[in-house]
Amino acid sequence: MMQLNYAEPSHQTVTVHQMEQIDKPTATRLHSLGIHSGCELAVLRKYPFHGPVIVEYESQRIGIRYSIFLALIGGN
Amino acid sequence: MPVVALLGNPNTGKTTLFNGLTDTYSYVGNWEGVTVEKKVGKINHSELLVIDLPGIYSLNPITKDESVAINCLLNDSPDIILNVTNACQLKRNLLLSVELLEFGQPMVIALNMIDDLKRSGINYDLDILSETLGCRFFSTNARNKDGLAQLKSELISSPIKKAAVLHLNYPVEISNIITLTSMQLMQQFNYTEPFARWLTIQFMNKNLQVRQYATDHHLHPLTSQETIFDSHNYESQIFNTRLDFINSVLDRATQQESSKSHQNITAKIDHWITQPLLGLPIFIGIFFLMFKLSFDWLGTPLSDLLDSFISGPVSSATAALLTQLGAIPFLKSLIVDGIIAGVGGVLTFIPQIFILFACISLLEDSGYMSRAALVTDRLMQIFGLNGKAFIPLIIGFGCNVTGIMAARTIEQPKERLITTLISPFVSCSARLPIYGLFVAAFFQKHQALVVLSIYFIGIFVALLMAKVYQWLFKVKETSVFIIELPKYHLPRLDIIAMGTWDKGKGFIKNAGSIIFAGTVLIWLLSNLGPQGVVTNINASFCALIGQAALPIFKLIGVTSWATVSALLTGIFAKEVISSSMIVLFHLSGQTGLIATFSTLFTPLSAYCLLIFILLYAPCFSTLSAIKAETGSIKWAIYSLISNTVLAFAISMIIYQVGSLFI
């Protein structure tokens, strides 16, 4: 059942393990947003069919692609 | 005249601040070196010029938009940098500030959106920030004009003085290289110390624009060390030094006030708007509402009112006046049947167009646009594009030229080229008048739906062509997609009004220039023939041209030469198509035209014609934008030909297949 009342949900957090496997422009952009190895991201949303992921870091919300998200947290 | 450059991250409210600082309405300046438009304004009662530049995340540009800002820094060297920051995200905003402070120009930092920060219960000690960073800080809330007066008087009154250049404690190895290399640059090229140091740091940091600059200016001290620099991963050491410095500054300057429990409105709205399953339906719903408002509920009644005013009192009063003045019939006909009917016919669409623009401005101002990019990203991936390409396409609803310019925020060059090439298929506001005439004549009951279907066909063809181009250009690189979701703002009327006017003024300006010229031209061509002035339009130049091309157009259901001639004039500007038709059919305005249409078209051929108008050759302004953005006239010529062929093919298939059933 879909919840109709809004309640601040608690979100899963993940740690950024590496940024080396990400393409250069994406890594540069993430750096500019202050994201670096070791920082903690709260995962707010994941879209179906491996769509984008919304993460929160230091009160900024950022949408990134699923593949980048996986690479950040250490998968391939 | 001293120049202040506004620089800062995207979504920090630069443009709002710009509009607040410059009381005079901004004009768009074309600056030397780059054929790019920047907004320029003047602070009232002063000699200060302010330039509004596109938002940048760092001085290392990834997008074309960012290169514009950095070029301004490198080539125009502004006298003062006004660094606009989002106070809530000061840490990452300061990453850019540090780079700018190292540049050594006098700088003022505005902590904008200060109200959002206060609401979160945090406060920064501006004195500590000023002292540690060596530049003045001001807190502002540009949306409510808070703090702008102080900022303005600081910019006007303080004499421009040399700034204290920021020197960070980079690791010893890096420090030594900076000192040594900048010494060589100072000796060999007469650079100032701050600029030489800044060049070295940026070069080590793999700043592509600076590397290009070094190559162009033969800066051997830098270029000879390129491979050595790159093998040492200095980049991440530089980044870490900066981040550590910023953390220590913020630790000292942060004053935690009472931790207020605040209601997070953005989170609440996003709970629904970005809901994985509802996001896309909500997006479609919002656009459907936008079209209903523009073409059904509000826009059309207002347009009808304006039309009855222009084709009624205005037209007859002018005719009476001209008769009284004793104007010759030829001139009277030119003014009444040509200019008032033609240009006036286009002007009646102002309500619909401005309502559509107001809706788009509202979406931009509220912060919804980036959510739209997010929810459409997965869909756009199928076509090899990303969600960000959706924004230029939506802006293209207003005008394809601005849509093409908006494509500058796309990171990958090939994706940007593809977005530029598919942009003309998006139905711009100039095409609306002609849709309006045809739906009023043939699709009375379903006006909004028919217009919406045309818009969707435009988007669909655009996406399909994107896929074709992906395949043709053999695009392999994956696209970059990182999008910030800014906090929602309660839309402000003045900001929306300004945005609407910014988008719509082109339409009104066109009415006075190119539509006017096109209308007069078509009127002359239809009243003159090989034998001079003709009374029978069938002997005019227009008829000759139209009839020559008519056999081909019969394939898509066009049976009158006048329609063909009108289509040809559409290449000047799409608005001219409807004014040409009014002139060619010798009618006093929309109402007469609608009645004439029913004898010339069937609903099927009318719909096919609309599709042809949607897709065929882009107008001159769009063609020149394509040329400017791709840097080659070939793409403009290519668009002209390929779009016309495609338009012809699609409308012919629909007409021929449709004729079998209807």
Automatic annotation (TrEMBL), chain B:
Membrane-crossing residue ranges in chain numbering: 277-298, 310-331, 338-363, 383-405, 417-443, 449-469, 507-525, 537-564, 635-657
Subcellular localization(s) per the UniProt record: Cell membrane
Any one GO cellular component localisation term in the record: plasma membrane
Keyword Cell membrane: yes
Amino-acid positions noted as binding Mg(2+) 2 in the UniProt annotation, renumbered to this chain: N19, G20
Binding-site list for GTP: 8-15, 33-37, 52-55, 112-115
Family that this chain belongs to: Belongs to the TRAFAC class TrmE-Era-EngA-EngB-Septin-like GTPase superfamily. FeoB GTPase (TC 9.A.8) family.
UniProt-recorded name of the protein: Ferrous iron transport protein B
Source organism of this protein record: Paucilactobacillus oligofermentans DSM 15707 = LMG 22743
